[in-house]
Specification:
With 396 residues, the protein is an alpha/beta fold. The protein contains 15 helices and 13 strands.
Length: 396
Amino acid sequence: MNQTARIISIYAADTSGVCSALYEFGGMTVIHDASGCNSTYTTHDEPRWYDMDSMMFISGLTESDAVMGNDEKFIDDLVTAAEELKPEYIAICASPMPAMIGIDMDAIAYEVESRTGIQAFDVKTNGMQSYITGAGNAFLTLSERFTGTAEDDDEKVPGTIKINILGLTPLDFPLGTDRILREWLESEGFKVNACIGMGTSLDEVRRLNRADVSLVIASSGKALAESLKERYGIPYVTGVPYGQSYAAVIADMLRNADVSKSCRKYDKRIAVLGESILSASLAAAISLETGYGVRVLETVGDGDMSQLVSEGTVKDINGADYIGDISCDDEDQLEKEIEKSEIIIGDPLFKPICHGRKFIEIPHDAFSGRCFKKYEKNMIAAELPFLDELKKMSEE
């Protein structure tokens, strides 16, 4: 059986991805699901919950409502809440139950918008995919509704490159990363046009079309980047500016809108586990800082697979054919791939299947929730905090 886990954790679901993506835009987000299920998102996946208000709700779907098809109750509740709270928009998404029984979420959104006059839309989810799919669909749907509707017009400063930051959520990055990214981009002479996902507002979504180039820092931002390129001709660069050396590479790529520049050395001895863009960026940063070759084991299953380097397409640091990056969201397959490496870098919850391999802990909220939050460290345009440990392990 594929995509199973008997020891390690699983990633946050697509419904959590929707809620995380839409948290700061002033809308009302509702998961169509049984009462109490929202606690999974708020308790484990959302660190902003206690410091920042947001209209996140659960529909309270009952067994009888599901069996009898009582959609009117859900519609009435949405209309009543919207008339009282007056959100900027209404977003609904489906858990496994409404997805399985075929509830027409688009029709519900249409009916709610007709009754309230507030833009309402369905974000495609089924509760069986990862946060990447949910957040990516949410960002894209929100942009399709609002981008290009900004009323004011920023004055264009000659020679200034305006940047969209795409895919920034607390599921992938520590709180405060938005501020750090903005400061780094400004120090490089760029101007941040919009930061989508964290430290943001709906006004930034409205002006996404005014950027010169987008920076995609997580797979959840990839669909939006491609849409902006198709609709407005805005090119995009993919990567996280981890470490000082790789941050300089990303800055150069942004100036030239160059998405093809690679600086990673390849070898199977060190493996980075996790989401594709984050892991490939960290692997590249390690290569630049140490000269070591690094392999990526993508563990989510629905990220940006273009970041992975296939077996035999490049040479490893010894001149032999590279063993290859791989996407393995099945636990048994992942265990076998981990056995090929000596040093593993990833979330601490992967350690039980690493069987004595040397391990460097990099917590990932989408995988381990708040368990290791106190160990999170900023790596944006900063010294990688584990380099001394990695060098010591490599010399042993």
